[in-house]
Write a structure and sequence with these properties.
Elements (H helix, E strand, L loop, with lengths): L4 E11 L4 E6 L4 H5 L3 E2 L4 E9 L2 E6 L5 H6 L4 E5 L13 H4 L3 E4 L4 E10 L4 E6 L5 E5 L3 E3 L4 E3 L6
Parallel strand pairs: 7-12
Antiparallel strand pairs: 1-2, 1-6, 2-5, 3-4, 4-5, 7-8, 8-9, 9-10, 11-12
Length: 157
């Protein structure tokens, strides 16, 4: 898990004509993203980063015009999991939850965590059942262990 790439942002389009790109942030904020000078195993070197109206505006060393910036649309900015700051007691990274098996509070397997999100109100996890149907639950009803998630049975029906 320590070397698994973690996505901190994604390019959502070009900004202007000089090669800047607009980013959707998954990191805490622009300042936390600045701490990493390179992304994608050193393939993207950050030259500048600032707040944008809906995220951030970045410039990379290898992107010099609008066409190159547009070509980056959809590119995820990743760092190795081991590069993230250490966690305190009871803290977790969303990336660590994805892929964990999920059980109800009675021990019955209910599926696998396929996503963890925050849409503004609180954290939620998305679980895919073996039949490929999906459901979401608030993180408050989930007990997080290192190798599994246990969900209050009332939310699994």
């Amino acid at each position: 898990m320590q070397n698994k790439p973690v996505t901190l942002a994604v390019v959502i389009g070009a900004h202007g004509v000089a090669g800047e790109v607009r980013l959707k942030l998954f990191a805490e904020d622009v300042e936390s993203l600045k701490r990493y000078g390179t992304f994608n195993d050193g393939q993207l070197v950050l030259k500048s980063l600032r707040h944008g109206s809906n995220g951030a505006i970045a410039r990379f060393a290898s992107v010099n015009d609008r066409n190159a910036a547009e070509a980056m649309r959809g590119t995820e900015l990743t760092v190795p999991r081991s590069a993230l700051p250490p966690l305190g007691e009871g803290e977790y990274y969303f990336a660590d939850l994805v892929g964990l098996p999920c059980f109800d509070s009675e021990g019955t397997a209910v599926g696998t965590c396929i996503a963890a999100e925050n849409f503004g109100a609180s954290d939620v996890i998305e679980i895919e059942r073996p039949d490929k149907k999906r459901f979401m639950v608030p993180i408050q009803v989930v007990t997080i262990a290192s190798d599994q998630l246990v969900i209050d049975s009332a939310f699994c029906e």
